[in-house]
Amino acid sequence: MNTIAFRRKFSDILIDKCRVANNDIILVAFSGGADSMALLHLLKNEGCKCIAAHCNFHLRADESDADALFAEEVCNRLKVRFHKTDFDTRTFAEERGLSIEMAARQLRYDWFEKLMKETGATLLATGHHGNDNIETFFLNLSRGTGLKGLTGMSFRSGSIIRPLLFASADEIRDYCKVEGFDYRIDSTNIESDYQRNKIRNLIVPLFEELNPSFFATMQNNLSYLSDTYGIFKAEADSFRERIVAQSGDSILIPIENIKEHPYRGALLFEILQPYGFQGQMISAVIKSLDGIPGRQFFSHSHRLVVDRFNLLVVPITELDKSSHAIEGGVSEISVPIKMSISIFDKPDNYKVSRDPNTAHFDAGLVEFPLFLRKSQQGDRFMPLGMKQFKKISDLFIDLKMSLIDKENSWLLCNGDDIMWVVGVRIDDRYKIRANTRKILEIKVNP
């Protein structure tokens, strides 16, 4: 192996792809295996300021403890500051319903983030190599993560750098052998109990039989896919900026614009994936676009409603079914909505307010406390100008209100009577009359 060429390639990647600066302090995820061993020595050879971080997941009994001891001895010899932590990985995984792989990943990256703040490290370097990238491709392909997931890992993502992505696992082991670096071997890597190991030990060898240059071919494929995703993302970002309305964690997507787009499936996947919606669910959303409005879809964090004209995506929250009292003498409230309350003598030149967020009532007909609550099945009131009751649900339908708007609506109640569908219509029974003496004014404030 030409170690000089290998180091030169690493040096170029470190500057051009990982964008490491002279003043960066690099926290190195150091397991003591071949990948992290090569990484630490290569970084030291480049003159980088390094701190080593070792996680003992206690998944291999005495072997895990031996790994930790070996890693510490290496760092002492190299005069690299060493940090170690211990995890009860199996218990953590069981308590949270995670796979061992996902539990270990969450534990280590949470600790790395904490350690970076404590040590002042500016970058986290991991020993991921080209074979890891191929395995990630197949994992994401099986999970249905979309085009982005098929691009694999990048040399730099935020503060995480992966300078060894250019190299194969065999090249890294050869480098350690030529340079005389001892390293630990994780015995679980030869087992096929974990998803990644199944890909490594069972699937990739089959492709290598079909194509002896499979590693190089996949490196090129991942590069092309990354470029392709960049082109697609630019189009998706442009569409999102032009068409999608966003407010906080909620978004509104015009249905017609989605239906007219020739690549609506991929586009909708790109827009909805950050909210937890995945492949088959997005296909079902597309099929529902020509159906009856009101269908809903749920991810772990958000709800998507297919409304008449828009797709509405909102965070999942517990619907507020409680009542909020407005006591007599109170001039304003801030929960559940901001309101100002006042009572004054009816002026001779009184005119009905045309502001939907301002309501006037005959104060003589009202008895405090008043209550604000959400609508319930069977609710009805007598809309202003009518002499018969109407269901609140029918009013919402007449006004073509979306499901989200209905759920966000509040009712102001006097005892069992609904005085006001807030911001929409007051009850005719509480309107200002000729014999009204005092007016109760309630305003919804921004």
From TrEMBL:
SUPFAM superfamilies, per the entry: Adenine nucleotide alpha hydrolases-like (SSF52402), PheT/TilS domain (SSF56037)
Keywords (A to Z) from UniProt: ATP-binding, Cytoplasm, Ligase, Nucleotide-binding, tRNA processing
Chain residues that bind ATP: 31-36
GO BP of this protein: tRNA modification
One CC-aspect GO term: cytoplasm
Lysidine-tRNA(Ile) synthetase C-terminal domain span: 370-442
Pfam family of the protein (one): TilS_C
InterPro entries: Lysidine-tRNA-synth_C, Rossmann-like_a/b/a_fold, TilS/TtcA_N, tRNA_Ile_lys_synt, tRNA_Ile_lys_synt_N
Entry's Gene Ontology molecular function annotations: ATP binding; tRNA(Ile)-lysidine synthase activity
Compartmental location: Cytoplasm
SMART domains on file: TilS_C
Domain free text: The N-terminal region contains the highly conserved SGGXDS motif, predicted to be a P-loop motif involved in ATP binding.
Chain's role: Ligates lysine onto the cytidine present at position 34 of the AUA codon-specific tRNA(Ile) that contains the anticodon CAU, in an ATP-dependent manner. Cytidine is converted to lysidine, thus changing the amino acid specificity of the tRNA from methionine to isoleucine.
Family affiliation: Belongs to the tRNA(Ile)-lysidine synthase family.
HAMAP family named in the record: tRNA_Ile_lys_synt
PANTHER family to which the protein is assigned, alphabetical: TRNA(ILE)-LYSIDINE SYNTHASE-RELATED
Protein name: tRNA(Ile)-lysidine synthase
Species annotation: Xiashengella succiniciproducens
